[in-house]
Amino acid sequence: MVISVSSFLRNHPVTLTSEYDESNDVTLNTRKRTSRKSSRLSAKTNTNNMPYVKGANKCDLNDKNFASDKLCASDKTCEGDEDDCREAALRLLDYAPRSVIDMRQRLKEKGYCEVVVDSVINRLIELHLLDDNQYAQMVIRSCVARLLGARATRMELHRKNVNPDAISKCVELAQNSGVFTEAAWELGRKTAQRTKNLEPLVRRRRFFAAAARKGHDLSVINEVYAALFMSDNE
Description:
Blueprint (H helix, E strand, L loop, with lengths): L4 H7 L6 H29 L11 H5 L3 H30 L4 H10 L4 H13 L5 H14 L4 H10 L4 H14 L1 H16 L5 H14 L4 H11 L1 H4 L1
Helix pairs in contact: 4-6, 5-6, 7-8, 7-9, 8-9, 10-11, 10-12
């Protein structure tokens, strides 16, 4: 029986073998990888000597004035930061007097750079808006009003970040003027009045405890106790 070619092909269609498919796939994949690699090499060659600047296009990079424009913008930013820093410092001084160290720390906490902070603080010192000696004297007057002694006053000045030289100078002047001794006597008079109906030992304990908390010298405490409490006991 004779079978025609067309009839044979209809009954037995031609199919590609898996070997042929895999060969074609490998060839296509190889061509794709080669094409991508060539594109990357071409792009790298075109931008080999071009500096990267965020937000800048090709025209900006080729502009001769690009660097100078960036410097000018930086200078304007510094000027703006200094104005803002000065306003922030004045607001802090409006709220309360401050020491130089405290002002410096607060401005840095607000995010201003060290150069700007130094410039603003130096200007405030020139205008006598920041003065550690005057600030220390103000703190000492406040401490004496609270009947604190020299030791407690020193601790308060250190807590407020006053310059150590200003602390030594101002506390010594206050001691020589007798303000801490007078504060101890005032504390003794108030304690004696409050405890006049108590036992002698209780009165002594309460006065010594209060005077120690206030930071008075032991020699002054003994002197005040002998004058105000022992005479009452007799």
